[in-house]
Design brief:
mainly alpha; two-stranded antiparallel ribbon; 6% strand
Length: 305
Amino acid sequence: MVPLGLIDIRPASTALQLGPVTIDWYGIGYALALAVGVWVASRQARLRHENPDHIGNAIVLVFVLGLVGARLYHLIDQWNTLYAADPIKAILPPYTGLGVYGGIVGGIVAALIYTRRHRLSFLRWADIAVPALLLGQAIARWGNFFNQELYGPPTNLPWGIAIDCSKRVAEYACALYPPNTGFQPLFFYESSLDFIGALIALWLARRAAERLRDGDLMAFWLIWYGGVRSVLETFRLGYDWTFFGVPTAILVGLAAMAFGVTMIVRRHRGPGPSTAELDREREAAERAAPSGEEAAAGTGAQTPA
């Protein structure tokens, strides 16, 4: 008997087939997340009197290094399960396996390179990017729905989702759980919490700027996202990359939370300018600059954090 309220929607992972070219929903989700993220970050940059052109200029480097980092994390995480027996699969298409933590690390490295090269404050621009990053993560997570992945244990809850037998981990095989079994939609939980985190970050940026310092929103993101992932990862099975039996993803999440708390404590220990004060300084500099040099006001002359 089908569980009450089971969401039995099992979409195909492929959105469009154009000859030899396959366009997956996963890729569409990432493209949409990137577009929304660029728009939101550009808007935040304008509100903080920074040159939004930096967002567009940096996005290619962030995307490339983020993709490389995400792929490397996935390869390490799933090496024994998917690639050890046939290593050539690690470098041949399709490149559908991506690890979010690796993508984040790659993106941060790219941002550090870009801000250092252009003499910008990394922490200030990281704060600008945080709402966009959380919104992008909320959107991209729906790619897991189309791939029928990132699900938790069986559940009788009305929002349990069906998973094809071929997409299940060994512990939840159809020989043990019927095809109409519902599973916890972890991708939806994370997407919803990322969206809530984005709203909180936007609220803090607008309403609490007098009490914030540059880098606080980045610290908030580390605490929020680290906590979300650490909790949700406890529902998953089929781990490959562990440390003393603990999934590495949980350890990374806990480390991110600890680092975020440390950032806030250390940066608020002594006197220093608030985010609002720095924003007003940028606004004054923007107004004082000759009209032909307004764009230049945001390209340099900042002290890297």
